[in-house]
Amino acid sequence: MERFDKGFKDAKLAIDALTGKGFSATAAAGFYWGAKIVTKLARSESIQAAVLLHPSFISVDISVKISPKVAHGWAVWYDVEMK
Length: 83
Prior knowledge:
Shape: globular
Distance between the termini: 42 Å
Strand order of the largest sheet: 1-2
Number of domains: 1
Protein name: Putative alpha/Beta hydrolase
Keywords: Hydrolase
Organism: Rosa chinensis
Helix content: 25-40%
Oligomer: single chain
GO molecular function: hydrolase activity
């Protein structure tokens, strides 16, 4: 079993519970190791938005998806004017 499978399964249970309560969209944020789990959730289309903060165990081939016109910034400093 991959080291992140339990976290993915636990998060998926929580997302499924929210969907069962009528939520139509969910998002997740992952810090450090949690970023890997959030990436897996996004790739499985379990969530509609993902935030990765200081991610680890992430490779470019599993995380890249172009989303035009999406604002970006930093976890502790954000500037919408930054190009």
